[in-house]
Amino acid sequence: MSPPFIRTVLGDIEPSRLGRTLVHEHLYCSPPPFATREAQDLDFGHAEGAALELSRLADAGGGAVCELTTPDYGRDVSIAVQASRASGVHVVQATGLQKGLYYPAGTSRRSEEDLASQFVHDLRVGVDGTEARAGLIKVGTCSTDEVWDVERTVFAAAAIAAGETGAPIMTHTQAGTLGDHQLDMFDAAGHPLEQVCIGHLDRHLDFGYLNGLAARGAWLGFDQWTKAKYAADEERAAMILSLIDAGHTRLMVSGDLGRARYQHAYGGGPGLDGCLNALATVLPDDVFTMVAIDNPAEFLVFGGRR
Fold first, then answer.
1. Distance (Å, whole) CA 298 – CA 5
2. In the 8-state DSSP scheme, what is residue 291?
3. Percent of the chain scoring above 70 in pLDDT
4. Are 56 and 88 in contact (CB under 8 A)?
5. Do residues 46 and 99 make contact, with C-beta atoms less than 8 angstroms apart?
6. Which end of the chain is more exposed for a tag (fewer CB within 10 A), N or C?
7. Which candidate, 295, 255, 262, places its Cα nearest to that of 25?
8. Is the pTM of this model over 0.90?
């Protein structure tokens, strides 16, 4: 059996090399024009800016980020590659598709197997004609109260691709909802839930809901750190501690700073370094080590705990 590895855009690394990790970030993105008409700073990012953000993260003690921009959200892996080389920070790039509202035309006519083959190619061969390989699969839902049929197809494709490659899966939820429905889809596909992290759950800080997701064996993503418009960081920390007290430790953290206004390189803040510092300030040292170092090093390994 080969030793465990995490796949970055610059190659495979041992899990111990990952370091302090923000598991749900965007170094760049470019959603469809209808999405940016009233939110222009959703369309941002270039290699120099990404390198600056990652360099500041490194200066703050950060070691890695998961770059979760998918093709329907404007993926450009060349930016991740250049920024990783310039900064020394590991970048784990996503394949997959973000959510039904953004899917490319014709997605609804593609089969699960066809979509899965695309994801597998990104994971094994390279992304967008490059030799940089994806290190995880991202899928999501765009509604707060229903799953679109085309999203069901994409989730099934993700399960196929993950089963074939051992890649971990991270999800987008709209305002933290439908996490249980997402797990139901993976369950129906026979995919182990311990290879899945449900995202944006700190936008729905309901203990009963989160406890139920954790009890099924999935990982929980608290990835809106520093965004007071959704909740105070102290509330996020309190929920994490409550879940740990209930026996759940599959928890990971990040900021999802996917707007120009959130990053220093484009005149904003708090930046990736500010997010990491906020985590270290609010969480107890042992909890910070678990959610920002130990857990990403476990979850991002290909093959996971199957």
1. 10
2. I
3. 99
4. no
5. no
6. N
7. 255
8. yes
Residues 220-271 have pLDDT tens digits of 999 999 999 999 999 999 999 999 999 999 999 999 999 999 999 999 999 9
Alpha-carbon torsion angle 191, 196, 200, 204, nearest 10: 60
**32 SS3 class:** coil
Q: Which secondary structure element, helix H or strand E, spans residue 282, and what is its range?
A: helix 271-282
Domain annotation covers residue 12: no
Which candidate, 42, 41, 117, 130, places its Cα nearest to that of 84?
Answer: 130
The CATH number given to whatever domain includes residue 135 is: 3.20.20.140
pLDDT in tens, 68-88: 999 999 999 999 999 999 999
Show the domain range for 38.
21-299
The Cα–Cα gap between 214 and 194 comes to 10
Per-residue model confidence as pLDDT tens digits over 136-151: 999 999 999 999 999 9
CA distance 48 to 205: 36
Residue 79 covered by a domain = yes
Structure tokens that stand for 80 in this block: 């991740």
- Give me the pLDDT at residue 305, please: 38
Tell me, yes or no, whether 11 lies in a domain: no
Total domains, the chain: 1
User: Minimal CA–CA distance to 67: which of 27, 38, 107?
Assistant: 27
Helices marked H in 142-257? 149-165, 179-188, 207-215, 233-245
